[in-house]
Structures are given as structure tokens and as C-alpha cells.
Amino acid sequence: MEACCSDLEVDINGEETLFLNKQIICAYSATFKKLLGKSSCSNGNLKVIFNDFPGGAQSFELVSRFCYSNGRLAVMPSNVVLMHCAAKFMEVSKVLEQTEKCMEEVRYWSWPEILLSLKQCQEVETSPEAESLAAKLMDALVEKLCLTVEMSPSSAASACSPDSSLFRFSCDSKSTESFKNSSVRLMWWFDEVLVLSPGLVEMFLKLLVSRKFDNLIISRFLFYYQKVKFCSASSHEKRKILETIIATLCVLDQSCIPCKGLFGFLRLALGLNISKSSMNKLELMIGNNLDQATLDNLLVPSPSKSSHLYYVNLVIRFTKAFLDGAKGGLQLKKVSSLIDQYIAEVAPDPCLKPSKFLSLLTLVPDSARDSHEEIYRAIDMYLEAHTGLTNGEKLSVIRTLSYEKLSGESRTKISRNPKFQVIETPDEQQQQQQKQLILQMDKVEISGENEKLKDHIEGIQWRVMELERACLKMQNQMEVIKRRSKNSSKGNSRSLPKLCS
Fold first, then answer.
1. Are residues 363 and 411 in the same domain?
2. Fewer beta carbons within 10 angstroms: which end of the chain, N or C?
3. Which stretches does DSSP call E strand in 287-389?
4. What is the span of the domain harbouring residue 433?
5. pLDDT level of residue 38 (50, 70, 90 thresholds)
6. pLDDT for 459
7. Do 432 and 411 belong together in one domain?
8. What pLDDT does residue 499 have?
9. H or E element: which one contains 222?
10. What are phi and psi for residue 361, nearest 5 degrees?
11. Domain membership flag for residue 52
């Protein structure tokens, strides 16, 4: 950059130092005119230092060249963002007139031109103009993308189904080759958009949703976005990316989101400690899609601070979210079956408390279960692993079983299973009577023609067991009352009413 007298030295953000003519630059820039005023260079060059100049030395030099060429430097999509922000900082009105005129034509720019300008918005993020410029550019970018997809064959949308793989094609068939080409046409923009910062991608996604862009394609992009960007991102960046993805997924049509993918995000979220709000949204989405989950999906390891083997509380929250969605019929039965499998899987965990196990057993309505076979198996394993349960805890767990929903074989097994026998009551006469009744029933020979009699006898046997448990519960309550009464009498001389025997 040449001039007859370079009497002004400008340091741009410590990147570069330029030597300019004070008279020329002050003729265009109100900022320099106010800074330098009537100062002279009689004692050497004047020096100006900028520490936060938007766009750095590149944008400053563009505006300086405009001034030196007497306004003949062309403003175009490739430089408009840098020149606009620099001119705003330097208060060069002639440049601003041209940049604003150029931005009015943004809808007619090509896709690469818009994308390049958006990347430049990241370079001038310190400028107060950057956000408004990015908004205009992003609106034009999304409009261009929507028009492109609308012109694609409508059948191609199926290529982005959450249940399909975009890269499993056979080259032997023309139809599958066409399917592949349709997919590529719909997703050509994925990699190009990834050059933008997480903040601009978030703006891009919000606009796509507001324009009612195909939710299947948005969902595909989000999974691709996470996979690619996580390779080189820091923990903070990963957290920001994942929170943006979750915020977008939760406003999409849930049928467009693969359940397996949500559980993948869940495992990432647990490791990144994302915000509580984002985690709640993710749990709600998984809960709404719980009927699509598998047992492997639910077997999430417990947080490091917990002694449990699996994250039981998480599954409880998923199930409650599903039930709050008031889904019934086949979906409810599928979830009920899934939870029963999960209960059987976690039952052997020696650290699983009785209260938590009971919460799992009573999580889904009993009407959703056609059979209690899985529950019986789970309780049997739980009692095996938790031999130190109190009578009350043992009774609470056993009482969740429904006699009517067990097979004849299981009913017989329960009656002879010592783990299902609550500690004997002190009433020896009652105990003897129960044993005699059970022995009598065991001696009865059941023929193939007396199935009803068999069911009736087994029912009596089951009710005897329930009576025994109820009696034990009452005895435990009496013991507690007696202990309280004894403790109270030590500190109070007043007489207390006697308990009825």
C-alpha cells in the first residue's frame, strides 16, 4: 500500500502493522478523524493500536484499499462481511452504503457465496454487526436449501428413514442405485454445513424447524453432526453440541428419531454431565419411545458414586414418562414385558435395595401383565441374593405376585420353595394345622379329569400362605407397639391401657 507520505502507523490486534497516510484515511474514516484530530507528525509517525478490530488485519486492509482507491474497490459476496464490520468500526459511510446494497441481493447469491460469508461472520464475531449479518445470511441459506429439497423426488424422503441405512445398497440393482442417488441428493449439504461454528449450526437448525423442513432429514443430519464433530471437539464443545442436538430433536416428529440413537446420546450425555434441562428432555424422548427399546438399551451402568450395578432410577423415570404419555394396548404390553425382563436382569444385584426392587415390581400396571412367570423368576433370584431381608421386606416383595397369573407348575414350585416361606409364627397350634392341611393336599391324587379340583386346592394352599403372612405382619406390628409402650413406661409413671390379647 503506497502513499506519498506514510505518517500513520496502525497496529491491528497485534497481527500486523500498517503504514498509512493520515490525510487519506481521515478523509473517509470518522473514527480516525476523531482519534487523530489536528495532531501532526512533526515529531515522527503517529501510532494507533487496535486490540479488538473485527476481522483483524484482513478486514482493515480491505477498507484501507477502498479509501486509497477513492472508492473503486468492488464490494462483493466474498468480502462484504469483512468490509461491512470494518467500515462500521472505522465509520466509513461510503463503504457501508455499498455493503448494505450488496446484502440486499443476498437471495440471489450462490450457495458457496452464502456459506463463505457465514464463515466470515465467525471471524468478525467481536463486531456488534456479526449477529444481524449472520441472521440474514442464514435465512438465505435455509431458503435455498428448502428450494433444493422441494425440487428433489418426493419418494427420496424415504431414504432418510430412521430404520434404514443410507449406505447398504446393492450395485446389482438399478432401483437400489436410484435409491442411493436420491439419498445423496437430499444429504449433499451435510459436510458443507459442518464448517460452521456450533452457534451458527444452532441458528441453522432453528430455521430448518421453523420452515417445517423434512424432520427425517434433520434427524439424520443431527446424528451425522454428532459423529463428525465429536472427533476433534473438547469436552466443553461436545457438551454444547449435544445440548443443541437434544434441543432440536425434542421438537421434531418423534417417529423420525431412532430409539437406538437416543440411547447412544444418553451414554454420551451421562459422561459429559450436560445440563439438567437437556437431560430431562432426552429422558422424556426415550420414555416416549420406550416401546421400541430393547433390554440391552436399558442396561445402563450406574453412576460411579452409586453402588448399584445398573442405573435403576433412570429406567424408572423412562417408564413413568412412557406411562404419562397415556399409551396403552400393544405398546403398553411391550413395555411391560421389557420391564419384567429388566427386573429379572437386575434382581441378583446384592446392592439393590428392597424399596427400589419393589418400585420396579409395581412400576407398570398389573393389568398390562398377562403372566407373572417373569416376576416370579425375578423375585426368586432376588430372595436368593438378599438373604438378610426382614419379614416385612420379604412379605412386601412376595405379595406383588398374582396367583391367578402363574402357571400350575409355578404355583407348585412356590408352595415348596423355602425362600417364599416367611419366618414361622409363634402360634405352634396354627403352624401344625397349616402343615397338616398342606400334607393332606399333597396326598390328594389329581386325575386329568379333575383340573378344577387341582386349581381349587392350589388356591386354598396359596390363601393359607397369605393368611400366614398377614398374621406375621400383625405380630410384627404388635411387637413394635409393645416396645414403644415399654420405652414410654420407663420415662412416664402414668399407667397405659393393656393391649388386647
1. yes
2. C
3. none
4. 424-442+452-475
5. low
6. 63
7. no
8. 37
9. helix 215-229
10. -65, -35
11. no
**Across the strands, what pairs with 280?**
none
**pLDDT score, position 464:** 64
59: closest CA among 106, 5, 13? Answer: 13
Do 431 and 424 contact (CB within 8 A), yes or no? yes
DSSP string computed for 77-132? TTTHHHHHHHHHHHT-HHHHHHHHHHHTTGGGS-HHHHHHHHHHHHHTTTSTTHHH
**123: how many CB neighbours lie within 10 A of its CB?**
17
392-444 confidence digits (pLDDT tens): 888 899 888 888 888 888 888 888 888 887 644 444 444 554 455 444 445 44
- Is residue 7 within 8 A of residue 21, CB to CB? The reply is yes
Q: Is residue 334 part of a domain?
A: yes
CA angle 79, 83, 89 (to 5 degrees): 160
Query: Cα–Cα distance between 238 and 220 in angstroms, integer?
Result: 18
Backbone angles phi and psi of 20, in degrees to 5: -125, 170
Domain presence at residue 256: no
Residue 17 belongs to some domain of the structure? no
DSSP 189: T
278-325, pLDDT tens digit by residue?
Answer: 999 999 999 999 999 999 999 999 887 778 899 999 999 999 999 988
Q: pLDDT band at 85, cuts 50/70/90?
A: very high
Same domain, yes or no: 402 and 429: no
- Calculate Rg over the CA atoms of the chain: 37
**Calpha distance 149→202 (Å, rounded):** 20
Judgement on whether residues 463 and 406 belong to the same structural domain of the protein: no
What total number of domains does the chain contain?
Answer: 2
Nearest residue to 298 via CA among 397, 309, 180: 309
The C-alpha cell that represents 407 in the structure block = 402357571
For the segment 192-196, the average pLDDT, to the nearest whole number, is 93
